[in-house]
């Protein structure tokens, strides 16, 4: 039976959201979030229905709770994610910034560069060659523009004195799921090694970019309902069925990520709680030729939200496998790291060097990936010189 686009009666009253619990520890919310954070893979015509099915919570309640948590700030954003590694060349970028300019550089990159996503201040427990790289960002620069030139532009604007772009060569795991990762035992992992994913940029036409741009726009609380896509289809100038068919086709081409409700990583929520307190960037240096074997073993550990093959070079003692884990307790994260180290040794993977970069101040937003958006931005900033053309 086709469902109505209208919201349940309670949604018509903006104040009614106050009637719903918004804590991540509420039993119903916990069941919803355990699915909605990162379990709805690819494009789904009915993501709310999938969350309801897998959480055991009825669809109307799922809508009520997600809408209320989003309005309250418990959920920071709701959106369809894209596999941006397959849409635009990107990199994890480490920056050396004079300490007295660190916060200003952080603020400028977060506020002014739409192609910069994560912005994090990191530190290490011991002094290493990489410790001077305090500012870390993720960056996407669509073709035909240059990551190197874009980094130089950012350095000029912020006073950064050095930078190290580290593109991903392989992806081993990518997911968030902070709620379902709480209480994981160190060493918890899948039965089989993670599957490696190559990083290859897919070429799209302008119509396909229109669909993607409509798909990825964040949902406002009042947009959360049982049928999410007809308004987005209209935005892209398509009928709902054609829009969904194109989205499914784009998913088959490897550019659709997941439908997700994102929680704050470190910031306290409106009720004073924090979903996580620590985020750790783990570094491992393994012998050349063993990067994929090591990444597949690291990526199978449930604690890992991200795991990549990236080349750190001499600046970072030649690390080549990196991953991120989040948690409420620092020692608990270190216990997970120790379990991964032991597992690598048991798997016959030599680790020549390892380190942990702890996250401090952080801001996160989706990186813009559209070449159309980059061209418009470059023109408005009089930065056409950054083009490769």
Description:
It is a single chain. The chain is 32% helix and 22% strand. The chain has 389 residues and is α+β, with helices and mostly antiparallel strands. Helix 1 crosses helix 2 (47-55), helix 2 packs across helix 3 (59-72) and helix 7 (206-216) packs across helix 9 (240-252). The chain is globular, with a radius of gyration of 21 Å. Residues 1-15 and 384-389 have low confidence and may be disordered.
Overall pLDDT metric: 88
Q: Could you tell me the number of beta strands?
A: 13
Query: What is the strand content?
Result: 15-25%
Q: Topology as H/E string?
A: HEHHEEHEEHEEHEHHHEEHEEHEH
Arrangement of strands in the largest sheet: 6-3-5-4-13-10-12-11-7-8
Our count of helices gives 12
Question: Helical percent range?
Answer: 25-40%
List low-pLDDT spans. Answer: 1-15, 384-389
Shape: globular
The CATH topology label of the domain at 19-80 and 167-369 is Arc Repressor Mutant, subunit A
Q: How much is the radius of gyration in Å?
A: 21 Å
CATH class label of the domain at 19-80 and 167-369: Mainly Alpha
CATH architecture of the domain at 19-80 and 167-369: Orthogonal Bundle
Largest sheet: 10 strands, antiparallel
Global structural class? alpha+beta
**What is the assembly state of the chains in this entry?**
single chain
Give the end-to-end Cα distance, rounded to a whole number of Å.
Answer: 53 Å
